[in-house]
Fold:
Amino acid sequence: MHWIALLPASEDERAAWGWWALQFTPRVALLDEAIVLEVQASQALFGGRRSLSCRIFESNTALAPVKWASGATSLVALALLRLQLRGAARPRAVGELPLELLTAALPHVAVLERTGCRNWGQLRALPRAGVARRFGAGLLDALDAAFGERPEGHAWLTLPTVFDMNLELPALATSAPELLWSAQRLLSQLQVWLAVRNQGVLALEFEWTLDLRRHNGVQLPSHQQLVIRTAQATQDLAHLRRLASEQLHRTTLAAPANHLRLRSLETSPWAGASTSLLPEDRRKGEKLHQLVERLSARLGEGSVVVPVACEDHRPERKQQWLPARQALATAAPDADALYPAWLLPQPLRLQMQGDTPCHGGPLHRLARLYRVEAAWWEANGPALRDYFIARSPQHGLVWIYRERPGPGQSQPRWFLQGLYA
Structure:
């Protein structure tokens, strides 16, 4: 058997490192202060022991580096890790490991040393009946497991279906930007969870716990929340950090906060980043939807809007202005090729010269009519129109329509609705 024991840089990253390790073996467990991985069966799949170690420790850029050691059992790997943290040399044999490196022996180290027993080998040489009677059978069980003479029992880690992590702040945060440092740590762990589950996040929520229940005589809620949404599923940590930073800078805390929680609200399967083999297609910089999301977070949803085509035959109803982040996720129908570049806010009634409409002079119709019959379901009655492209002596190409007479009308009316650039 081959085990790896690793010690994350902080206690908050233990779970994330455990999730990361699940990519390489299903046998991952928390053991005392460390995480242990049984990788004997996985080594061949990743090109051998050295290649597997490189994949585990060098390909994870989201989390801080860890200290690690390996051994034939989980207890040996953990003992060697503890020895490495002390800066001591690795012994030639497992039996030379000091007693204090075995967790089960810690309560009895002082008594055993007075008898001249200072390492695992010397403890193993003592009469088993006397050791069990004096120190309990648990010490012998741990010693047998350390030497591989007894199966090891661990509660294996499983990956949660929803990311939900709570972090105690190092100091009370009095403003939302002060939460950003802890938010970045949680986002790093979210990226690991997304990578292992092969998911992209569409919506996530920050929630912070308020340290006060009343402020200036006003009853306060126990928590405040901030929801962040993206138009496209992403695993891009830099983009999520920018969005979190922009929105936190626009948020006011009702009271100082002592805990920060991050949970995923909506995810979707991750298809991976699509790239081109051609160098000219690999453009640098932000993608359009990322720029729009960042500007929307900075300026507000209603300050960044775009026109979106709608399924309506009336030109004045064929588009509406929506927040840009919402519009990015909306599939718009194709625009008509004959439509002008500019539509008037309201159609302009045209003067007539006989049967010819005028706008800067008599208009000369160029294209055949384009008939629209729509809105029969509305209270104002249906729109019955014949559209034409015409030429004005002063204004060039224009877009006009003839409103066919309805009940009570004797003559058709003409309107100008658009201009061609």
Summary: Residues 331-335 have pLDDT under 50 and may be disordered. The chain has three domains: 3-146, 164-272, 342-419. The first helix runs from residue 14 to 21.
